[in-house]
Write a structure and sequence with these properties.
Layout lengths: L1 E3 L2 E3 L2 H22 L3 E3 L5 H7 L6 E7 L4 E4 L4 H10 L7 E7 L5 E2 L20 H14 L1 H4 L5
Antiparallel strand pairs: 1-2, 3-5, 4-5, 4-6, 6-7
Length: 151
């Protein structure tokens, strides 16, 4: 590297590598975005496997608790939120969180949950009734994980 007037002049190969990395990330993002699955029925074992591609042991989930629609597999909750809003879900019924696939622990944490007008001032779902419904629906959509299989 050569320093000129307070700036570092980097070799051309550095910038070529940087551009290639950026393009690889862009391609990956396109693939990841296509992993969002939105549906009213429980996810199959194969779908859960596809959904875990992004974070391996964790899946981000957004649920319309009134219409019982789940959108999962997003890298940011707002992407699944938009899918549900575009499908005529009401904002007040859309809540976000996730599920740890190894421990089966459901969390209720998402920035889309911060809605002071709906009496939710935290990224956690604060209303016990809404939280309970979200948990029940998450177990329904991911029942493949909670059912005991006998062979």
């Amino acid at each position: 590297m050569i320093q000129t007037r307070g700036f570092i002049k980097r070799p051309r190969a550095f910038y070529t590598s940087l551009v290639q990395t950026h393009l690889a990330v862009k391609k990956t993002n396109l693939i990841i975005q296509s992993m969002i699955i939105t549906k009213k029925n429980p996810f199959t074992k194969e779908e859960i496997q596809k959904l875990r591609d992004l974070f391996d042991t964790y899946i981000k989930i957004v649920i319309d608790i009134e219409n019982e629609i789940c959108s999962a597999g997003c890298d940011r909750h707002f992407k699944s939120e938009k899918i549900l809003l575009d499908a005529d879900s009401l904002q007040e019924n859309i809540w976000g969180g996730g599920i740890d696939l190894e421990t089966k622990i459901i969390d209720f944490n998402s920035f889309i949950n911060i809605r002071p007008n709906d009496n939710n001032t935290s990224n956690e779902i604060q209303n016990g009734k809404i939280r309970g419904k979200y948990e029940k629906l998450t177990k329904y959509f991911f029942r493949e994980m909670y059912e005991r299989h006998t062979t």
